[in-house]
Amino acid sequence: MSGKPRLHYTNGRGKMESIRWLLAAAGVEFEEEFIETKEDLEKLRTDGVLMFQQVPMVEIDGMKMVQTRAILSYIAAKYNLYGKDLKERAWIDMYVEGTTDLMGMIMYLPFQPADTKEKNLALIIERATTRYFPVYEKALKDHGNDYLVGNKLSWADVHLLEAILMAEECKPDILSAFPLLQAFKGRTSNIPTIKKFLQPGSQRKPPTDKKFVAIVRKIFNI
To answer: In terms of domains, do 101 and 172 share one?
Structure first.
């Protein structure tokens, strides 16, 4: 075994994408074992390596970790992206939960019936611009720092950048009313490890298309 974290998931974004982002931001190389068929998933279940019979699953430090939040928390703490004390960690958690809610809406959009997509897309844009992005814009304005918590790159910043880029795929000018978030996007996108992840050919996955939706439906019986 190489010692690199090994990620078990489909060859698409889903719940694993934030894990890819965080490892990449931390400068950690990782390997991926793609689940391409229903049989691949069943083998993992039969082998007893999925605690709750679900993926994502990440092999790291001798553990077979499941549950997205647990995996992300571990990586954030291991690579010093989780604040300096309990209060900073609480702020990071709050910000991350907010971006997770927004990204969840975007993530499930391609899986929704065609006749509801337009309505749900409008809801995503409305929530992003009235509920979520104003919080981060205000945070950056209030403390005047480059990052959300402790003026140091944290999991909260990585997650927010991922959410911004996902939201821009829904509406390219979605940040038009948020100048500080525009500047934040520029700064964080140019952090060397993140910049590398944003380049073509990286392990970052493309937006979910119809072909990938069909594959996921088949593997997971949905």
So the answer is: yes
Looking at the predicted structure, is the pLDDT value of residue 89 above 90? yes
Which residues lie across from 147 on neighbouring strands? none
Burial class of 25 by CB neighbour count within 10 A (0 to 12, 13 to 18, 19+)? buried
Q: How far is CA 112 from the centre of its chain?
A: 20
Long-range contacts of 105-110, Cβ-Cβ distance < 8 Å, separation of 24 or more: 106/166, 106/167, 106/169, 106/170, 107/13, 107/14, 107/15, 107/166, 107/208, 109/170, 110/207, 110/208, 110/209, 110/210, 110/212, 110/213
pLDDT at residue 1, rounded to an integer: 44
Mean pLDDT of 95-108: 96
Which structural domain, as residue segments, surrounds residue 156? 86-190
Q: What is the pLDDT of residue 149?
A: 96
Count Cα neighbours of 68 within 13 Å in the Cβ-side half-sphere. Answer: 17
- Integer Cα distance of 190 and 180 in angstroms: 16
Q: Are 130 and 163 within one domain? A: yes
Closest CA to 49 of 36, 35, 37: 35
Grade residue 116 by pLDDT with cuts at 50, 70 and 90.
very high
Rounded Cα–Cα distance for residues 184 and 160 (Å): 9
Scan for tokens 């979520």, then name that residue.
Answer: 132
Q: Which amino acid is at 40?
A: D
Q: What is the pLDDT of residues 118-146, one digit of tens each?
A: 999 999 999 999 999 999 999 999 998 89
